[in-house]
Structure formats: C-alpha cells, structure tokens
Write a structure and sequence with these properties.
Blueprint: H1 2-20, E1 23-24, E2 36-39, H2 46-60, E3 67-70, E4 77-81, E5 89-96, E6 99-108, H3 109-115, H4 121-136, E7 144-145, H5 165-174
Parallel strand pairs: 2-3, 4-6
Antiparallel strand pairs: 1-7, 5-6
Helix pairs in contact: 2-4
Length: 175
C-alpha cells in the first residue's frame, strides 16, 4: 500500500509540474527555408531606422541559428506607415508548401505612436518588429506557455524588445 501511494504521489507531482510549465510551441505551417533571411534594404528617418535595425540585431544576437540581413535585391519588404487597421504590425506571407517564398512586414506608425509609453518609442517598435520577424521563421502568435515570449500578444511592448529563451529554443528546433 505504501509503495502504491508513493508512486501515485510521484505521478501527481509530475503532472502538476508539467501543467504549470507548459511548453507547447505555436508554429506556423510555413517558414523561411534557410537560416539566412534577407530583407530588402530600407531607409527611414532616424526615429524609425535605429529601432528597426536594432530589431534585426536582436534576432541575430539571440543565438537562435538565424541571421537577418539587408539585401537590395530581396523581395522581403518592410514598411512603416499610418495604416487604418488597429494592429501594431502585420506580416503578409507568400509560401509554397511549408516554404516561405517572400513576406511583407508593415509596422503601423499610427497605433505604435498612439500606444507607446513616453520615452519608450524605440522599445515599442523593436517589440513589434521582432514579433513580426518571428512569423517569418515559423513562430505563430500566442504560444501556449507560461514562459515569456515575444510572440505573446499580452507582452509588455514597452519593455520586451528581444526574443525570449522560449522563442529562441523554438526557432532552433526548426533550423
């Protein structure tokens, strides 16, 4: 009886631990086919250019086995403008099977400027852009995890500007 109770207790503790630290990756059905992802060279005023360039570095420096690079001949475009929709950013993907063939990221200057905290514009842009870049490397929105993730909609965009360990590990699993 004592042995059966110990085994049951062990199983219950194990189940509780697993349920409190769920790590279910949320992947898209497509992603960039290689770990080097070109984006068309872009040029904005310094207010936008600096955080956008930092966003590329945030992924490149994350040791997630991916490299974003600017390339004037790339079909993957990035824009920042005043859009009528309410999202902070969108990633429009063209793919064939599971291979992303090109993407277009749009950052909504209207909603970003409206909702960022004072003095946090650069952080907000980085959070949105790093999130949108995540879609090009397989990551889907709102992963089912208690871990911090740049892909969560409820993240603090004024503070979280880089891919988190959870995001990095899931990208590594794909590349």
């Amino acid at each position: 009886m004592k042995k059966k109770l110990s085994i049951n207790l062990f199983l219950m503790v194990g189940l509780i631990m697993l349920s409190s630290t769920s790590v279910y990756a949320a992947y898209l059905t497509y992603g960039w086919p290689s770990s080097t992802i070109p984006v068309k060279s872009y040029s904005f005023n310094e207010t936008w250019q600096v955080p956008m360039d930092q966003s590329l570095s945030n992924w490149n420096d994350a040791k997630a086995n991916v490299t974003f690079s600017k390339n004037s001949s790339s079909e993957n475009t990035i824009s920042a403008a005043q859009y009528e929709w309410e999202d902070y950013g969108r990633n429009y993907a063209t793919y064939s099977g599971s291979k992303l063939t090109k993407f277009r990221i749009e950052l909504n200057a209207r909603t970003i400027s409206r909702d960022r905290e004072d003095g946090k514009f650069s952080n907000f842009v980085q959070s949105v852009f790093v999130h949108e870049l995540g879609h090009s490397i397989w990551l889907d929105d709102n992963p089912n995890t208690t871990s911090p993730s740049i892909m969560k909609h409820n993240r603090n965009r004024n503070e979280m500007t880089k891919p988190q360990t959870y995001d990095i590990n899931n990208v590594k699993a794909k590349y």
